[in-house]
Amino acid sequence: MSSDKSDRTKSDADDSDRDEGEDGKKPDAEAGDEASTAKASSAKASPTKASPAKASPAKASPAKATPAKAAAKKTDEDDDEDDDEDDEDDDGEGEEEKASGKKADETPYRGSGPSKGKPAKEPAGLWTRAAARWAAISLVLTLFYVVYTKHPYYLRDQFSPWRPIFRTIFIGWLALGLPYVVAALKEFTKRSLWFTDVGLHFLLMGRWALKRFQRKHSSHLWRSKRLRNTLRSIAVKAFFTPLMTTFLSGHLNSVSNHWLRKKGVAPFNFGSSTTMEQWWATVKAKLPLLVPSGSDWSALVSPSTWSMADMRWGLDMAYDFVFIVDCGIATMGYLSESRFLGNKTKSAEPTGLGWMVAIGCYPPFNQILGTYMPLGGGHRIISITDEKTLLVFKALTVLLFSIYASATVAFGFKFSNLTNRGIITRGPYAFIRHPAYVTKCLAWWLEHIPGLSLETAFFLCGTCSVYAMRAWTEERHLSMDAAYRAYKKKVPWVAIPRIF
After folding, report:
1. Residue 19 in 3-state DSSP?
2. How far is CA 372 from the centre of its chain?
3. Three-state DSSP class for residue 332
4. For the chain, the helix, strand and coil percentages under 3-state DSSP, each to the nearest 5
5. What's the rounded Cα separation, in Å, for the pair 177 and 135?
6. In 3-state terms, what secondary structure has residue 250?
7. Which residues does residue 13 pair with via DSSP β-bridges, in sequence order?
8. Residue 347, helix vs strand vs coil
9. Residue 219's pLDDT is what?
10. For residue 312, how many C-alpha atoms fall within 13 Å in the half-sphere facing its CB?
11. Going by C-beta distance under 8 Å and a sequence separation of 6 or more, which residues neighbour residue 222?
């Protein structure tokens, strides 16, 4: 069930993987203050002595795991499997504490304090914790800023709209990120929420890197399912957000250029060297021409005056408007992930196959797909040249892409490829589980039928099979979520209502 710009993943959020990702030593930084409680709880859950019946009379070899360690590892695995249950339990936690008169647990991890025999560390203050998270996220954004402004791929013309947008986002975060983090820490205090705290995960990674640099013992941090999920979700945003922005910009330019040509004016022409000042100066100069006049509106509502060229022009405009809505919602989803909006990522696609078939449908990787599955060319087995018939095919294509875009609209702020940010059951998803992929493939067939060749038909089948593989990998990923399993029972049809 996914939508995309060239594609997307019908989920918005998580396998709810959880794994503390700390080492056994007492933490020494802000991340450690919040992680120490988890280790205490884990230590209590693990047996410390072997059963007498199983104890070996000889000394255990250091290379072999003791029963206590094996039990501790088993406990860690059980913790990961039970994360969804933890979320449900915490939902009622606040009410129970109010009824009992107890204070809410101030630590984000399991357990209420450090292990017995160890002096309790005074917890860091709210602003200290917020500042540490803000600094960690700022460092990561700085790295991305360097990539987006220096890497040759992102210096191409197609990304010229993205660079000033990211610069604005980066400066905005530096100025307003700290109060935002403070507000989030005050508002969301449930322990389970902090298992997916991106800022805290960045701090843990920083502490791990520091220990490695100092040649100290490093923890099993990279075995943490939660941390791996955070890294995958960041990779999704880093890859797709620039692309969605360029797609949106391209369709906006296309609509404006359609209109300017209709008015007999030279279209916009922006490149990688265009500055924001030049862009705004050009837009201001041509903005009056983009506003429809009274005669324009009169012609629009008088179908009897439309020529065949007018109808084709109108369908071309409608086609771009559909993708403006589609790409606009997608861009908003990638840029706006927040607990305040309820669209935090629960899980990201965990398999290499899932990633391969998804990003293979987007630039620059779709060039490989286009190279081995070229559409067009070959001896035509169908050749339709009648103008009215071609307009009918164009209108049906726009209709199918409109349904495709409505699947994206159903996600709203939760849209994102390769992630589960909440199961969507409204809109076209109330009828089949993968409406975006189905309508997109059907629209491609309608676009090519008027000049269809055997080669094109063969490669269209291959391209659609890639989308079928995307649907399969998404089903496998989302089925880890109990909400999606319930949705599959409610909507059993994958692609065709009451048939398949």
Report:
1. coil
2. 28
3. helix
4. 65, 0, 35
5. 9
6. helix
7. 420
8. strand
9. 64
10. 8
11. 21, 208, 228
Name the residue type at position 186.
K
Helix axes 30-45, 126-150, angle to 10 degrees: 110
For the segment 304-320, what is each residue's pLDDT rounded down to a tens digit?
A: 888 888 899 999 999 99
- Judge whether 227 and 19 are in contact, CB under 8 Å: yes
d(CA 382, CA 452): 5
Helix (H, G, I), strand (E, B) or coil at 191: helix
Q: What are phi and psi of 453, to 5 degrees?
A: -120, 165
On whether the CB atoms of residues 217 and 211 are closer than 8 A, the answer is yes
Tokens of residue 437, six digits? 């992929």
Tokens 């220990």, located at residue: 211
**Exposed, middle or buried: residue 113 (CB in 10 Å: 0-12, 13-18, 19+)?**
middle
The label of the residue with tokens 């995309």 reads 4
Instruction: List the structure tokens of 101.
Output: 């008169």
DSSP notation for 382-438? -----HHHHHHHHHHHHHHHHHHHHHHHHHGGG--TTEESS---SGGGGT-S-HHHH
Report d(CA 220, CA 217) in Å as an integer. 10
Q: Which amino acid is at 412?
A: G
Q: Six-digit token pair at 177?
A: 């990120």
Chain centroid to CA 298: 43
- Can you point out the beta strands (E) in 290-439? 347-348, 419-420
Intervals of CATH 1.20.120.1630 along the chain: 233-490
Q: How far apart are CA 380 and CA 54, in angstroms?
A: 76
Q: Side chain identity at 192, as an amino acid letter?
A: S
User: Does the pLDDT at position 337 exceed 70?
Assistant: yes
Q: What is the DSSP letter of 453?
A: B
* Residue/partner pairs of 91-97 with CB below 8 Å, 24 or more apart: 91/190, 93/190, 93/191, 94/190
- Integer-rounded Cα radius of gyration of the chain: 27
**Is the model's pLDDT at 382 over the cut of 80?**
yes
The confidence score (pLDDT) of residue 93 equals: 42
For residues 177, 181, 182, 184, the Cα torsion angle rounded to the nearest 10 degrees is 140
233-490: CATH number: 1.20.120.1630
Q: Any idea which residue has 């919040």 for tokens?
A: 34
The whole model's pTM is what? Answer: 0.74
Asked if pLDDT for residue 187 goes beyond 80, the answer is yes
Q: What is the pLDDT of residue 432?
A: 97
For residues 345-361, one letter each, b for 16 or more C-beta atoms within 10 angstroms of the residue's C-beta and e for the rest, the string is bbbbbbeeebbebbbbb
Q: Copy the structure tokens of residue 390.
A: 């071609």
Contact, 34 vs 111, CB < 8 A? no
**484 CB-near residues (< 8 Å, 6+ apart):** 11, 420, 423, 478
Least confident of 16-20, 254-258, 385-389, 396-400: 16-20
The Cα 114–Cα 109 span in angstroms is 11
Q: Where are the alpha helices (DSSP H) in 301-386?
A: 308-335, 352-359, 366-372
